[in-house]
Amino acid sequence: MNFSQLKLKWGAFNSYIFILITSAGLIYLGFWMGNYVYSEQQKEITSLKSSLNNVKVENERVNKQLNILQVEFDVLNLAQQKYFTEIKQGIDRESTLQKDLAFYQQVMAPELTQQGFIIDAFNVEKSLSDRSYRFEIVLLQRDKIKNTLKGNLDITLVGSEAGQSKQYSLHGLLVNPEQQMTFSFKYFQVVEGELQLPENFQVEKVLIQSEIFQFNRKKGELLSSFDWLVTNTSE
To answer: Are 228 and 167 in contact (CB under 8 A)?
Structure first.
C-alpha cells in the first residue's frame, strides 16, 4: 500500500500521524540500537584494557625474574671463573711442590729415592670379598736418560692386632701366592695384586723396600712408607 492509498483510506491527518509515529519509532529504535552497540563496545574495550593491564603486569613480573636470573647467572659465571682460576693455581702449586719434593728426595733425603727411581704411590681399594683388598704400586724413573730398571719389592703391612703392634709380609697375604713382587721398566710401571687381611688385623702403614738393578748390577736400595688409605669404601 502506497501513501496515496493510505491517505484515501485513513484521511490525510491520520496518515501524517501514522507516518510521524512510525518515523519516531524508527528513530528511537535506531537510537536504542546505537546505544546498545556502544555499550557492548565499551564493555569489550574495558575487557581489553583489563587484559592489557594483566599482560603488562605479567610482562613486568617476567622481566623482573629475567633480571634476577641474569644477576644470578653473572654471579655464577664469576664464581665459576674464580673456581677455575683456583684450580689452575692449585695445579701450578702442586707442580711446584712436586718439583720441590723431587729435589728434596734427591738431595736432602736420598733414602726416599735411588738415582731417579721413585715409589710414587701405594693405592688400595676394597674388593667384594670380606677383608680382601686390591692394591697397586706406582713406580717411576725420573732420570733424563732412562735405562731399564729391574728389581724386587719387599712389602710389609704395619698395624695392630688384639691391641698389640703387628707386622705382616705382603707376600704371605696375597690371594695369588705365586705372584712375584718384581718390576722391570724404563719409564713407569704399576704393580698390581690382591691381598686378604688376617682377622682383627688393622693396617696403619705400608713399608716398601726395594732392591734396584741396572745392567745386572745393583744400583742401590730404597725404602718408602705410605699410609693405609682405602678408597671407594666406607671403612
So the answer is: no
Whether the Cβ atoms of residue 181 and residue 175 lie closer than 8 Å to each other? no
Task: Give residue-wise pLDDT tens across range 2-11.
Answer: 556 655 665 6
Give the 3-state secondary structure of 11-59. Answer: CHHHHHHHHHHHHHHHHHHHHHHHHHHHHHHHHHHHHHHHHHHHHHHHH
pLDDT value at residue 8: 60
Termini Cα distance of the chain:
113
Can you say how many angstroms the Cα of residue 95 is from the centroid of all Cα atoms in its chain?
A: 24
Please, which residues have CB within 8 angstroms of residue 189's CB and are 6 or more apart in sequence? 138, 139, 183
Calculate mean pLDDT across residues 88-113: 59
Q: Is the CB of residue 198 less than 8 Å from the CB of residue 174?
A: no
d(CA 119, CA 191): 11
Q: Supply φ then ψ for residue 154, to 5 degrees.
A: -110, 110
Per residue in 132-155, pLDDT (tens digit) is 999 999 998 876 667 888 999 999
Answer yes or no: are the C-beta atoms of 208 and 223 closer than 8 Å: yes
Model pTM greater than 0.85?
no
Give residue-wise pLDDT tens across range 18-41. 667 777 777 777 777 777 777 788
Task: Provide the 3-class DSSP secondary structure of residue 169.
Answer: strand
